[in-house]
């Protein structure tokens, strides 16, 4: 009951304090009463994860870790897109120095989110393909609004999701389900995602999704925070360590892959398809 009241207070626009306005592409609002931080991505039109958004996400996660928030809820300022995943323009005809910085930052941001010591939840208020799904599955709990899609669609783009994308996916889905979905590049509707367990709950609005995420975080109110966070870290240690040990190799593989003419050709066609769709409307 206490948890429900706290979460209602948070979602109903109860006392909120804007802690950070420093980052251009993210905001952090911490509710004074509940101590839960809402981290909002704000890079129109689709929250494409480019170098700057990834940097801002990382610095917001650090800020939330540092200000002793009771939990982190990740969401988006867009009414229809949680995140369109990696900004394809970072990989299409890339400047190789920037591309290196981009992938290194993606690794850094993932390590911070997946390894975060505070309870994390995603209020998925829009489409969430590929890198968007990575962010959501790196959180401990997911609540999604109907009529959107979520999944790792990399194979549809002729790309291979790196091992650590798979780790986050596998921390949520059974191996058989995860393997089939990844091989197919399958995007799940909200209802399908709930059925397979890719999300935990549905909500009729962003506000309700945030309320349900807050209720999840509230379930830890009476649990020793250090014991909870060390337990979470033990569960995630192998996945985190695997990337930490292989960061350089992972980066080199990525740079090699994006410099392949066949991949560039595929990305060009994919981008063209996205743009044609806009013109048709
Ligand atoms: C160890 C590793 C080794 C090797 C591995 C090598 C490579 C690994 C990399 C693999 C990882 C990839 C992860 C990714 O995240 S790739 C990105 C995948 N994302 C998508 O496929 C999403 C594409 N977008 C959409 O499906 C739709 O846009 C969406 C449903 C999100 C929204 O639809 P809506 O109708 O609302 O908007 P649009 O009109 O489609 O889009 C508006 C403008 O935004 C542009 N756009 C959309 N998505 C992206 C994107 N991901 N990147 C860049 N730009 C994007 C779209 O073109 C429109 O642009 P304009 O026409 O307005 O200029």
From TrEMBL:
**GO molecular function terms listed in the Swiss-Prot or TrEMBL record:** delta(3)-delta(2)-enoyl-CoA isomerase activity
**Gene Ontology, cellular component aspect:** mitochondrial matrix
Superkingdom as given in the UniProt entry: Eukaryota
Pathway of action: Lipid metabolism; fatty acid beta-oxidation
Principal subcellular localisation of the protein: mitochondrion
Q: Write out the catalysed reaction.
A: (2E)-tetradecenoyl-CoA = (3Z)-tetradecenoyl-CoA; (3Z)-dodecenoyl-CoA = (2E)-dodecenoyl-CoA; (3Z)-octenoyl-CoA = (2E)-octenoyl-CoA; (3Z)-decenoyl-CoA = (2E)-decenoyl-CoA
The UniProt keywords, alphabetically, are: Acetylation, Fatty acid metabolism, Isomerase, Lipid metabolism, Mitochondrion, Transit peptide
* Alphabetized Pfam families for the sequence: ECH_1
Signal peptide region: none
Location relative to the cell: Mitochondrion matrix
For the biological process aspect of GO, one term held by this record is: fatty acid beta-oxidation
The answer to whether UniProt assigns keyword Isomerase to this entry is: yes
Query: InterPro entries, alphabetically?
Result: ClpP/crotonase-like_dom_sf, Enoyl-CoA_hydra/iso
Annotated function: Key enzyme of fatty acid beta-oxidation. Able to isomerize both 3-cis (3Z) and 3-trans (3E) double bonds into the 2-trans (2E) form in a range of enoyl-CoA species, with a preference for (3Z)-enoyl-CoAs over (3E)-enoyl-CoAs. The catalytic efficiency of this enzyme is not affected by the fatty acyl chain length.
Its subunit composition reads: Homotrimer.
Q: What is this protein called?
A: Enoyl-CoA delta isomerase 1, mitochondrial
State the species of origin.
Drosophila kikkawai (Fruit fly)
């Amino acid at each position: 009951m206490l948890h429900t009241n706290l979460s209602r207070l948070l979602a109903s626009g109860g006392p909120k304090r804007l802690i950070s306005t420093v980052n251009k592409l993210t905001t952090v609002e911490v509710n004074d009463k509940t101590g839960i931080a809402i981290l909002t991505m704000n890079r129109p039109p689709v929250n494409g994860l480019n170098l700057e958004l990834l940097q801002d996400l990382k610095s917001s996660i650090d800020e939330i870790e540092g200000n002793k928030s009771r939990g982190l809820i990740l969401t988006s300022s867009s009414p229809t897109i949680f995140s369109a995943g990696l900004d394809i323009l970072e990989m299409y005809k890339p400047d190789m120095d920037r591309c290196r910085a981009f992938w290194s930052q993606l690794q850094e941001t993932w390590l911070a989110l997946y390894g975060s010591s505070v309870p994390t939840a995603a209020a998925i208020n829009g489409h969430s393909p590929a890198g968007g799904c990575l962010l959501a599955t790196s959180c401990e709990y997911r609540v999604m609004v109907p009529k959107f899609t979520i999944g790792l669609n990399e194979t549809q783009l002729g790309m291979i999701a790196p091992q650590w994308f798979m780790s986050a996916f596998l921390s949520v889905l059974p191996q058989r389900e995860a393997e089939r979905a990844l091989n197919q590049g399958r995007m799940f509707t909200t209802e399908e995602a709930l059925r397979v367990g890719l999300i935990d709950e549905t909500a009729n609005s962003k506000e309700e999704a945030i309320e349900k995420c807050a209720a999840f975080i509230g379930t830890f109110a009476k649990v020793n925070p250090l014991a909870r966070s060390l337990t979470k870290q033990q569960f995630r240690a192998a996945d985190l360590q695997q990337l930490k040990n292989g960061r350089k190799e992972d980066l080199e593989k990525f740079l090699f892959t994006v410099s392949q003419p066949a991949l560039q050709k595929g990305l060009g066609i994919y981008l063209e398809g996205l743009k044609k769709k806009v013109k048709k409307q």
